[in-house]
Design brief:
This is TetR/AcrR family transcriptional regulator. With 208 residues, the chain is mostly helical. It has nine helices and no strands. α1 packs across α2 and α5 runs antiparallel to α7.
Length: 208
């Protein structure tokens, strides 16, 4: 890796190396030395960019969550010409969920890694409470992503939520988590999309 890379570029390179390793050998099996070797840098470079493995894992989680959010942000045109009313809201929420789902289907290894980082943080957190930050960062960011989808849909259709959007986003993310895990088990995309239809209808029922 070129010595002329900025610190942020180095960090991004190391995070991508860590993701590749974690997909192959699991989060628990990844060491900072492994990451240094995979990235082609010295161990000192890794520790210059990240205080320790936990700091690296926290940024790995953020990177995975950012990919999910960008799957929607890069398709901002879905908010244009949506129409108005709860019917239009339902269609728009479903369109946003579809963009999320397309990202899921195209990255099954990363979806499994996302679950693994959560369980890793929870298991390790029993001995090191600070590790819980990894899982909490993950869900805080994903809640914000789903909340942004719901708020964009509401604004575009001139509707208002009758339930706090924070509760709706949390509920929606909980169901998406279950859908993704079930899909990883059975690979039934048609069934998953049927569930997304039901989810969009349920969410839209909480607006007027």
């Amino acid at each position: 890796m070129s010595s002329r890379l900025s610190v942020e570029e180095r960090r991004a390179h190391l995070i991508e190396a860590a993701i590749g390793l974690a997909e192959k050998k699991g989060v628990a099996g990844v060491t900072t030395r492994d990451v240094a070797q995979a990235a082609g840098v010295s161990l000192g470079v890794v520790h210059y960019c990240f205080e320790n493995k936990d700091a690296l894992m926290t940024e790995l989680v953020k990177a995975l969550s950012t990919e999910l959010r960008e799957s929607i942000d890069t398709n901002a045109a879905i908010w244009d010409g949506a129409g108005s009313g709860t019917g239009a809201l339902r269609e728009l929420v479903r369109a946003g969920l579809e963009l999320l789902w397309q990202n899921v289907e195209s990255t099954p290894e990363r979806q499994m890694l996302s679950y693994e980082t959560t369980t890793y943080a929870l298991r390790e957190g029993e001995q090191t409470p600070a590790k819980l930050i990894i899982a909490r960062e993950q869900y805080t960011f994903n809640d914000a992503t789903v909340g942004a989808v719901l708020e964009n849909a509401r604004e575009a259709t001139g509707t208002r939520w009758t339930t706090p959007v924070t509760s709706l986003s949390r509920f929606t993310l909980n169901l998406i988590d279950g859908l993704v895990l079930r899909w990883l088990v059975d690979g039934d995309s048609a069934a998953a999309r049927t569930q997304l239809d039901l989810l969009a209808e349920l969410v839209a029922s909480k607006a007027e």
